[in-house]
Queue: 3 jobs
Job 1
Amino acid sequence: MARLRSDFWVSAYLRRCGVEGVEAVLRRRGSAEAGSIFVKVDHLDGTASLYGPAPQLFVTDAGERLFARVLHAVTPLDVEERVTRELRFDSDLWLVEVDDRAGRHFLDLAPEE
């Protein structure tokens, strides 16, 4: 099965957050077809987390997008610095920012390594 295009996935993700009553905005638009997607979750308490694509070993033929926690409960500045480093490596990435005090992200996570 083919993987869903990044632009379609992000559009659906933003709708899902809205349906759940969670504020989410697209901060950076990447490659429509295959850009990597990162999700920053601001916990609204001075901390934030960052989720990015899961390592390839967790990707199945089903084409689903799995995410891994890149940073957890760090300062928002730490997340921004990490995103800046990722942008140097992959200028086509997408960045979605979610604001939720409970830290909800609605992502399918790969098993912890």
Note: The first strand starts at residue 23 and ends at 28.
Job 2
Amino acid sequence: MPFYDKLVRDSIPAIIGRDGKNYSTRILETQEFQEEVKKKLEEELIEYRATANDQDALEELADLLELIHAAAEIHGASFEELEEIRAKKAAKRGGFKERIFLIEVEDDKT
């Protein structure tokens, strides 16, 4: 039996069971869950970077978004509260719509 040792979506055990396969799971403690969400975010980001078309990219972005929802809850905030923080930062510092790539900044030291 292969070992996965990773965080999975809530319905994955039921899907595995419907396929007639045996599995084992456990519920993570809070600190473990936080670490596993971080690992899963990295995994999904790597998968997003490897996509070759829009549909695959959107699927991976949806996975990242689901994990961002979970991470916000870990840190005591709802997704709506996280969105408020994002909007405030965007109002103050802008977003990424203009695709600006900073090359260099002159050093004030002479």
Note: The chain is about 55% helix and 0% strand.
Job 3
Amino acid sequence: MNFDAFTLATDDTRQVLDKRAQPRRTAPPYEQIKRYVLARVENGTWKPGDAIPSETVLVKEFGVARMTVSRALRELTNEGVLTRVQGSGTFVAPRDYESTVLEIRNIADEIAARGHRHTARVLALQTSDDAAALASLGVAHGPVFHSRIVHCEEGEAIQFEDRFVNPALFPLYLQQDFTVETPNHYMVRLAPIQRAEFRIYARKPDAYVRHHLDIEIGEPCLMVERRTWVGEAVATSVQLWHAASRFHLAGKV
């Protein structure tokens, strides 16, 4: 081994040893507290609406100054993870569900994309001669098909779907199991949509919708009315009710 090679090897070894001897950098204390809180929110230990430990408890647990704990909680509040109520404490913020109104998406796919579980409760699956429904579908004579379904994310109701369907386009609609496949997915699978129209309202739901969304009397909803076409025929007319406190609508053009 020549001298230059030996020197190079020695220098490389010294650099490795020097790096090992250097203490590992740790996150600032406030950041450690943020990670602690986030971990428990994300793994479900602390659920939306749950109170988290007080600042006094966190100060003792982490052995830091109160201002350090306050900074961590303040930043998590600004990030929408927590909500702080004067005189009551700090709570895990409710989940804020988001959908788009500029593209027709399957709600089960939206929920799956968030890493959550979709379930559905079928409240009604029947025929109907409702005059307004026939007019909306452009059908001269009934009956048409009618379904009412509550869509849930991790067991929490986030959408009440009240749908009328053109039986000429989907004659087997009433035979489907909509706890397994959503109406949206079923219809798009059979007949791709050519066009759609939307209207969005802020409305107070009736007692039936309010009960199945599990919301308080007086809480408003965002209600989307939507019609979709297959060819020249209206395929479906649907009202989608969302509790305002748990859902908002967004889109990009």
Note: The chain is about 35% helix and 30% strand.
